[in-house]
Specification:
By secondary structure, this protein is an all-alpha fold. It has one domain (about 1-185, about 225-410): Up-down Bundle (Growth Hormone, Chain: A), CATH 1.20.1250. Helix content is about 75%, strand content about 0%. A two-stranded antiparallel ribbon has the order 1-2.
């Protein structure tokens, strides 16, 4: 169920690009100035601000009812986009969409981190994220089918409206079903005995205090004073900005940059995501198997760089399309990989929710970057946006390597007895 609702959230935040080339740009004049970029980036302001408060609320109210409320609410926003007549109203609805979607992703990572141990998380987080990417893979094809709907001769004859209307209704139905199907935190589930709940909570925690204690908002902020959290946030900023830039502009690059028709651009958007799912799950499985994170993360980042360079500097459309496969895999795979990396270096269960929320909040700033570095005036090559993404991926590889070498050294010192207590938790070791 987490995969389903997260897939819907990805679909609902990025379907504006499909609507854009299906007539939204013409009807609402989004091609004037920076209107499209504004409509994209406004989503991320409330999305960033509401992450940490939501992860404080979710543990107290419970995941099923809190997430059910959020899902239904953002579904109503998407439904409303199908009836707008001005770009200003569309922008307001995008802001509300960001507010309600903010709690899902960090909440889901918090839930997964509460159920699974250090070297069990990468493949679980990757499975959760990549299964939801099926919506990104088939979303453009689905959007194309919806854009063919025409009812009457008025506003409902515009296919882009039906993209929002149908997908909004689907999300609302998922929100209504969520309280019945979503998983809870271990201490709140009904299907475990008290003894089983105790086992579920203590197996993932090395700390001495009771893991059921919920940090307050101020306690969560104090946990984020750790300098390493800033590094995890920077890593996730790069991963998120790269993903969003490709998600928002891939159909446009295929249409304007590679010269494919509207229908073919939508269809060709799907295969790179399907390849990314298979390759990313393989990388996550290998990372858990060899108990190393950084080699996989760096290889994926370098693959993204190679893919972007192929898109940028080769001429044949088929070769450039192959580059899109590599770029999509390299950028998408490092989103769950980076989240697992941050969770694995955090010993205390109470802190993991704050770390996940902080990383994804900063990732929202990456979304703002991704929605602005590709400017319409730079078409068809989008040279500044491409090189900005390449540069950030290089920075990601360097920082990940240096941070992992630091963690390796700290583990060595702890094993030698020269640093007896990592993260203030006896027996804890980092997972570089």
């Amino acid at each position: 169920m987490l995969c389903i609702v997260f897939g819907l959230s990805l679909l609902d935040r990025t379907n504006i690009s499909s609507a854009y080339i299906a007539g939204l740009a013409v009807d609402l004049r989004l091609d004037i100035g920076s209107r499209y970029n504004i409509a994209l980036l406004i989503f991320f302001i409330p999305y960033a601000l509401f992450q940490i408060p939501s992860n404080v609320i979710i543990r107290r109210l419970g995941a099923r009812y809190w997430l059910g409320f959020l899902i239904t609410s953002w579904g109503a926003c998407v439904l409303g986009m199908g009836f707008v007549h001005s770009w200003e109203v569309l922008t307001v609805l995008r802001a509300l969409l960001g507010l309600f979607e903010a709690g899902l992703f960090p909440g889901a990572i918090y839930i997964i981190g509460s159920w699974y141990c250090q070297y069990e998380t990468a493949k679980r987080v990757s499975t959760f994220y990549m299964a939801s990417l099926l919506s990104s893979g088939f979303g453009p094809i689905f959007a194309y089918a919806l854009s063919l709907i025409k009812v009457g001769d008025g506003m409902y004859a515009r296919g882009w409206r039906w993209i929002f209307i149908i997908e909004g209704i689907a999300t609302i139905l998922a929100g209504i079903a969520a309280p019945f199907f979503l998983i809870e935190f271990p201490e709140k589930v009904k299907f475990l005995t008290d003894r089983q709940k105790h086992i579920a909570t203590t197996r993932v925690s090395l700390e001495k205090q009771e893991p059921e204690e919920h940090p307050t908002f101020m306690e969560s902020l104090k946990m984020l004073a750790d300098w390493k959290v800033a590094v995890y946030c920077m890593q996730y900023f790069v991963a998120a900005s790269s993903v969003y830039s490709l998600a928002f502009f891939q159909p446009i690059i295929l249409r304007q940059g590679m010269g494919f028709s509207y229908a073919l651009s939508q269809i060709l958007s799907s295969p790179p995501y399907l390849f990314a799912i298979v390759a990313s799950l393989s990388g996550a499985w290998l990372s858990d198997r060899i108990r190393l994170r950084y080699p996989i993360l760096i290889v994926q980042s370098l693959t993204a760089i190679v893919g972007l360079l192929i898109i940028l500097y080769t001429k044949p459309p088929g070769v450039r399309y192959f580059g899109l496969f590599l770029a999509t895999f390299g950028t998408q795979a490092n989103v769950p990989g980076t989240l697992a990396y941050g969770q694995n270096q955090t010993a205390r269960v109470r802190k993991r929710g704050a770390v996940a929320a902080a990383m994804i909040s900063v990732g929202a700033a990456g979304g703002i970057t991704g929605s602005t570095i590709f400017q319409s005036k730079d078409a068809p090559l989008y040279l500044p946006g491409m090189w900005a993404t390449i540069s950030m991926q290089l920075l990601y590889s360097i920082v990940t390597f240096c941070m992992s070498m630091y963690f390796t050294r700290m583990n060595q010192l702890a094993d030698e007895g020269k640093k007896p207590c990592l993260e203030d938790v006896e027996g804890f070791r980092y997972a570089p």
